[in-house]
């Protein structure tokens, strides 16, 4: 078992200090995830305040000797004291919801959807993860086929057009066609929900672009393309089951000015859901551009969620940080 210890490291001929390892525990209670998250944040603050990254490759470093070696009992008192100002985890206000998805489709075969304007785009001048985007129309047509090969088409899209969160010059140009599919009366309901979730994911990768309207990177253009699509997508509200409405409400947070005409519908929908909902309450605060309330809701989540402090500490515009918190909360509450 590792015990709390510090080693001296050496890079070439330069002496230095390096914390190599320490033992886990003791902790104030059995919520190890909570306390280790606090430790990681503490170490990060130390690094930011005092740490430097040595330019030499790590393989040039060598262990120079053990400086401190103490048992768990030796450090118990000081470790407990270090947690004295950190309260235990609060009860989470996130309640996983089983929202109505509407009636299931009897099969995976739907009516094909015609995409307008697909051949008007010079796809060969754009790129995706594997080079030229000239095959992008085939990927979009496979989605629009709305048939039993839907999952394969989605996989292809998220392999080439959006790859592990990265977007490309072709990605922005595909957004209107994803929206056409989502708006089509022919799309199977579960696939529409999947597309709404996909649009949220794609837009969230570069949410900072909402605060920097002059950005022209593929990420900025893609996020703004999703935001621009929000008014059209909100036309689905009246015919949507609960699960779809929840995602439409989240999408509205990407374009508050376009969503204000639906505000009463949003608040009425929220009122139909019993109990706390940090996710939807944060979305409504973003839509109404009530920044103090949005910050307050996000900060409250840090009393029980180990990841929201990291989202809030990111070097991003405040609105982007709040959107990242929003979508993280949605994963737990909405699934």
Oligomer: single chain
Helical proportion, percent range? 40-55%
Order of helices and strands: EEHEHEEHHEEHHHHHHHHHH
Q: Which radius of gyration do the C-alpha atoms yield?
A: 25 Å
Structure classification: mainly alpha
Number of helices: 14
Shape: globular
Provide the domain count: 2
What amount of the residues lies in strands? 5-15%
Number of strands: 7
Q: Give average pLDDT, whole number.
A: 88
Distance between the first and last residues' Cα: 38 Å
Query: Uncertain runs with pLDDT below 50, 5 residues or more?
Result: 1-11, 54-63
Described by strand count, sense and barrel closure, the largest sheet is: 3 strands, antiparallel
Spatial order of strands in the largest sheet? 2-1-3
Output the keywords.
7 strands, 3-stranded antiparallel beta sheet, single chain, two-stranded antiparallel ribbon, 335 residues, 14 helices, disordered N terminus, mainly alpha, globular
Could you explain how this protein is built, in words?
By secondary structure, this protein is mostly helical. The protein folds into 2 domains: 78 residues, no CATH class; 217 residues, no CATH class. The chain is built from 14 helices and 7 strands. It has a 3-stranded antiparallel β-sheet with strand order 2-1-3, with no helix packed on it. Helix 5 runs parallel beside helix 7, helix 6 runs parallel beside helix 8 and helix 11 packs antiparallel against helix 14.
């Amino acid at each position: 078992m590792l015990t709390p210890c510090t080693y001296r490291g050496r890079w070439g001929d330069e002496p230095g200090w390096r914390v190599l390892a320490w033992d886990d525990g003791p902790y104030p209670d059995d919520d190890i995830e909570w306390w280790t998250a606090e430790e990681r944040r503490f170490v990060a603050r130390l690094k930011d305040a005092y740490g430097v990254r040595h330019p030499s490759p790590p393989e040039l470093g060598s262990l120079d000797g053990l400086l401190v070696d103490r048992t768990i009992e030796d450090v118990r008192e000081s470790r407990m004291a270090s947690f004295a100002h950190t309260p235990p985890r609060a009860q989470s206000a996130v309640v996983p919801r089983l929202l109505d998805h509407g009636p299931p489709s009897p099969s995976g075969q739907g009516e094909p959807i015609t995409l307008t304007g697909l051949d008007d785009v010079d796809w060969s001048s754009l790129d995706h993860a594997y080079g030229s985007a000239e095959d992008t129309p085939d990927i979009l047509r496979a989605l629009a086929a709305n048939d039993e090969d839907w999952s394969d088409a989605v996989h292809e899209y998220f392999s080439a057009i959006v790859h592990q969160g990265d977007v490309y010059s072709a990605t922005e140009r595909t957004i209107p066609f994803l929206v056409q599919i989502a708006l089509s009366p022919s799309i199977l309901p579960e696939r529409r929900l999947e597309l709404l979730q996909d649009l949220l994911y794609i837009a969230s990768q570069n949410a900072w672009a909402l605060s920097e309207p002059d950005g022209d990177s593929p990420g900025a253009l893609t996020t703004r393309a999703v935001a621009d699509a929000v008014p059209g997508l909100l036309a689905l509200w009246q015919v949507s089951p609960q699960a779809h409405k929840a995602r439409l409400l989240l999408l509205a947070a990407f374009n508050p000015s376009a969503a204000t005409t639906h505000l009463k519908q949003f608040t009425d929908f929220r009122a139909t859901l019993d109990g706390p909902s940090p996710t939807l309450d944060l979305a409504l605060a973003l839509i109404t551009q009530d920044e103090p309330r949005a910050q307050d809701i996000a900060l409250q989540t840090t009393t029980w969620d180990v990841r929201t402090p990291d989202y809030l500490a990111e070097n991003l515009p405040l609105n982007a940080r709040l959107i990242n918190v929003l979508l993280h909360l949605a994963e737990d509450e909405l699934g």
